[in-house]
């Protein structure tokens, strides 16, 4: 027998950053974070539990994947199998409609889409919060992609805090390299915690920046929200830098200088960076075209991807070959609880 479901999730960019994990395991962040889920870029994932399969299998962007990516998918599938009392192995087919080296966290949208599709295919009746918890165990930032708009992850719990239209924000992703990152987030966090003299400072600073940013966002204050986001990114990178974990490149710093030059000209533009050299410019929507033009001609910036806030992860209708009509209908009906909120 085959049980299948398809899900879609968008990447997210943290405004207040998660960096570091609580002791004791379970992949629980040491500090709260707040992100914006991006529209227009998506991972689509199909999970098919199939009694005829001997092992789980993963196809990523059209190519069979093994090693670490397959092991991490299998770990999530194992949790779902255990909860659902299923023994069948699964075929996972996952596709990003954005380049993997774009600096957009494909693990966030990837594990969010995988969690939604696996839960649905297994027939588990989980609310979004519980699916987010499942995704968090695989990749903490993935928990935030379950929800649309502006989303908080505090300890083990992810929750939406404001709708996509809360502030007129555009995110300009400045791609600075096509190469994969040298140090994974996971390793970078572990090194920072173990070796940075400034990690304690980060742990003390991050919750305060997060609370201030959250309050500014809820007040509809775009400029303070973005200014605090830049502070959070710089504090995170400073703590990592001191452990020898350097994600920025010369191009990142040139783009940062361009963002600051825009600011001196009166544009509301701030910068954030994640575990790689790409810079994301947080800009007022009215100035997004001007900022894109400026950043596009900054040396070292290969291209600029524009994005706005979007919706949460959701089940897509599917009529898999071999599924009974009942099964196909069940998957379609199931789109309800995790459906995207209507556009605003
Ligand atoms: C964030 N990042 O808040 C921070 C800022 C990157 C820099 O969350 O170990 O892939 O799988 O939980 O979620 C990237 O880390 O790490 C991340 P794991 P994840 O977006």
Q: What labels would you give this structure?
A:
Alpha-Beta Plaits, four-stranded antiparallel sheet, disordered C terminus, globular, six-stranded mixed sheet, 14 strands, alpha+beta, 10 helices, 2 domains, Ribosomal Protein S5, domain 2, binds ligand 2P0, 344 residues
Description of the structure:
With 344 residues, the chain is an alpha+beta fold. The protein folds into two domains: 2-163 and 317-338, Ribosomal Protein S5, domain 2 (2-Layer Sandwich), CATH 3.30.230; 169-309, GHMP kinase, C-terminal domain (Alpha-Beta Plaits), CATH 3.30.70. 39% of the residues lie in helices and 23% in strands. It has helices spanning 67-84, 106-121, 128-138, 140-144, 185-195, 199-218, 222-241, 250-264, 288-296, 325-333, and strands at 2-9, 12-16, 33-37, 43-50, 57-60, 63-65, 89-96, 150-154, 157-162, 169-175, 269-273, 279-284, 303-308, 314-316. The protein has a six-stranded mixed β-sheet with strand order 6-5-7-4-1-14. Strands 2-3-8-9 form a four-stranded antiparallel β-sheet. Helix 1 (67-84) runs antiparallel to helix 3. The protein is globular and about 65 Å long. The protein starts with a strand and ends in an 11-residue tail after the last helix. The structure holds ligand 2P0. Ligand 2P0 is lined by residues 14, 17-19, 27, 33, 105, 107, 139-141, 185-186, 274-275.
């Amino acid at each position: 027998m085959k049980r299948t479901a398809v899900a879609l999730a968008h990447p997210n960019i943290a405004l207040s950053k998660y960096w570091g994990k609580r002791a004791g395991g379970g992949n629980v962040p040491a500090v709260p974070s707040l992100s914006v889920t991006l529209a227009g870029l998506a991972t689509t994932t199909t999970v098919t539990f199939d009694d005829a399969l001997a092992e789980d299998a993963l196809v990523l962007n059209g190519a069979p994947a093994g090693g670490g990516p397959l092991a991490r998918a299998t770990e999530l599938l194992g949790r779902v199998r255990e909860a659902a009392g299923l023994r069948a192995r699964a075929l996972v087919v996952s596709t990003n409609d954005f380049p993997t080296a774009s600096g957009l966290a494909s693990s966030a949208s990837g594990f969010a889409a995988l969690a939604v599709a696996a839960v649905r295919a297994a027939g588990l009746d989980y609310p979004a919060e519980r699916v987010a918890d499942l995704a968090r165990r695989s990749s903490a930032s993935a928990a935030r992609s379950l929800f649309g708009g502006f989303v908080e992850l505090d300890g083990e719990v992810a929750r939406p805090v404001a709708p996509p239209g809360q502030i007129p924000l555009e995110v300009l992703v400045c791609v600075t390299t096509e190469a994969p990152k040298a140090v994974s987030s996971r390793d970078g966090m572990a090194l920072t915690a173990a070796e940075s003299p400034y990690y304690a400072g980060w742990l003390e600073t991050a919750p305060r920046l997060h609370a201030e940013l959250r309050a500014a966002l809820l007040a509809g204050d775009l400029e303070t929200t973005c200014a605090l986001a830049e502070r959070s990114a710089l504090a995170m990178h400073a703590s990592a830098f001191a452990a020898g974990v350097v994600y920025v490149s010369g191009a990142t710093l040139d783009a940062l200088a361009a963002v600051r030059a825009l600011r001196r000209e009166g544009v509301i533009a701030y910068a954030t960076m994640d575990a790689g050299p790409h810079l994301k410019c947080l800009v007022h929507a009215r100035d997004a075209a001007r900022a894109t033009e400026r950043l596009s001609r900054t040396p070292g910036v290969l291209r600029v991807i524009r994005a706005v806030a979007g919706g949460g992860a959701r089940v897509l209708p599917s009529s898999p070959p071999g599924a009974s009509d009942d099964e196909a209908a069940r998957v379609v009906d199931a789109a309800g609880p995790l459906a995207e909120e209507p556009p605003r």
